[in-house]
Amino acid sequence: MMRNYCGVVSSFGIFLLVLLSACSPMPKKAMPEHGKVAGRYRVAMELILNDSTAADSFLQKFKGTKLDQYQWKNHIVLFGEAADTVGVGQLIRQSGVDLQMKHYDAPMYVFDRAKHCGDSTVAKPWKNYLLTANLVADSTLQTEYMHYHEVQFKEWPEVAQGFCNAGFQQLLVFRNGRQLLLVISIPNGKTLDELNPKTEENNPRVVEWNKLMSKYQEGIEGTKPGETWVFLNKINNN
Fold this sequence. Notes:
This protein has 238 residues and is an alpha+beta fold. The chain has a single domain, classed as 2-Layer Sandwich (Alpha-Beta Plaits). Helix content is 24%, strand content 28%. It contains seven helices and twelve strands.
């Protein structure tokens, strides 16, 4: 499904997916599905630098922290345990870099292999892929999108089965305003290119889902025409 990541990303067809906003007001948070609460899952903080040339020196501020660092153009995402974000806000303020901040601290959608595949064998360690896209600006379509994800396990069980078939360990979809942040966790040593096609293999409902989801998603600012989901590249800076 790498075609519509909330489609299972319309360019992947996956579902589509940071802690204290000193630089911009924090939009209303989406409630996590099935009563999931913040703290049970890793969290993310997105930093959008107004000057992309400052990215390299800015990232040095987080060297040695336990937070994984990902980047796409002027977008930097710090991803990790909530406890490891303590003190990060101060580092950001001390940097003096002009930026916007977004928080993703409670997923609106969770696929969990142990729960949804009936498989207690969970791979360790995981490799995490982070992608981002926007919901379209139409509020009615946004509501439809959220509803589809609320009922997906019940009314579209084939989608979760596709994730099971592909060996996905976990999917988290976060929402902040129109922006989605998707985290796909797979066994270390595997690649998304290797596993993703298995989500649609002999599974026409997943193909249908991906096509349906494509009308709800579009690229964030800076994407190319026709580009929806973009990968945030992991930076080895710890």
